[in-house]
Specification:
The chain is an alpha/beta fold. It has eleven helices and 13 strands. It is globular, with a radius of gyration of 21 Å.
Length: 301
């Protein structure tokens, strides 16, 4: 059989270079059966026996040329969609993304929190073990990118990180760890891990700021470089609250790397001011020189 795979997000976002986890498992499954796996081409749509389309983001538009019988999955299509176990158990086929020189995967699935903007609890439920790090790493790379949504929320995830800290793998937790769960013991693990680039956390509300203050004290005690700390911040409708959060984080530590993401949902697009705040005010590091109120007055926004 000829099987075509379609990465809806990559097709829409031309600069996207992050591989699609589900498609790599699907490709591995069909190749193991002896099938031929190719990328979807609308001009050859009648030559495929099966077409799979995967979409992560709900706002990614539909491709009108996909056949009617396309198997569609991923949170962007259906928050409850999952891979069949026989496919989910496959080791990833990295050959379909030749530019990817690192391993990706999950060691845990689910989350203990129920943030109103996040679909993870609805999709995956509470935190639970999923894979061991040995099942995820690549034989041809010493880089491992973990996509766990809350790896510190269970002892299993912490133990996996503890084991990884004793290896020579370079690690990145690209979804960010919970600052609320930082302890002395976890700081010891963070200090020992060889980080690919950043140590990532998130700060999506002012309620998290006291946890950052406590964590900074621990980082200093364990000599964890704060210049390696990267903080995701969600920018919602209340830009005054967002700026208070950004300014307080900056005041706590001027070497923090702060990244802002304007909230985007299928039925809710970010406003021009949200995009201005995230893409120019924060990304342009102008928050280091002035407040959002001063910025808007200066530019007459």
């Amino acid at each position: 059989m000829v099987v075509a795979v379609h990465d809806a997000d990559k097709e829409h976002m031309k600069n996207k270079n992050f591989p699609n986890y589900a498609l790599m498992k699907i490709s591995a499954f069909h190749k193991q059966k002896g099938d031929t796996v190719v990328w979807f081409n609308p001009l050859e749509r009648n030559e495929y026996d099966i077409v799979y389309s995967s979409k992560v983001f709900s706002w990614t538009p539909e491709n009108p040329y996909l056949p009617d019988n396309t198997i569609k999955g991923g949170t962007g299509y259906d928050v409850y969609s999952t891979l069949p176990k026989e496919i989910d158990d496959m080791y990833l086929d990295y050959s379909i993304y030749p530019d990817c020189d690192y391993a990706i995967g999950f060691l845990t699935r689910g989350c203990i929190y129920n943030c109103d903007f996040c679909v993870v609890p609805k999709k995956e439920g509470g935190i639970k073990p999923y894979r061991t790090w040995q099942e995820v790493v690549r034989p041809d790379s010493k880089k491992l990118l973990l996509m766990d949504n809350n790896i510190l929320a269970c002892q299993y995830g912490i133990e996996q990180l503890r084991q990884l800290a004793e290896t020579d793998y370079l690690i990145d937790c690209n979804q960010g760890m919970s600052i609320r769960l930082i302890t002395e013991d976890i700081c010891k693990i963070i200090k020992q891990i060889k980080w690919m680039k950043y140590i990532r956390f998130s700060c999506d509300g002012e309620y998290q700021l006291p946890y950052f203050e406590k964590a900074i004290e621990m980082f200093d005690r364990y000599q964890i470089p704060k210049s390696k700390v990267f903080i995701y911040t969600l920018i919602r409708d209340d830009l005054k609250e967002a700026d208070r959060r950004i300014q307080k984080l900056h005041k706590m530590c001027r070497s923090f790397n702060i990244y802002a993401q304007a909230e985007r949902q299928k039925d809710k697009q970010p406003t021009k001011l949200q995009l201005e705040f995230a893409q120019r005010y924060v990304y342009g590091r102008l928050y280091k020189k002035e407040t959002w109120a001063e910025y808007t007055v200066r530019l007459r926004l």
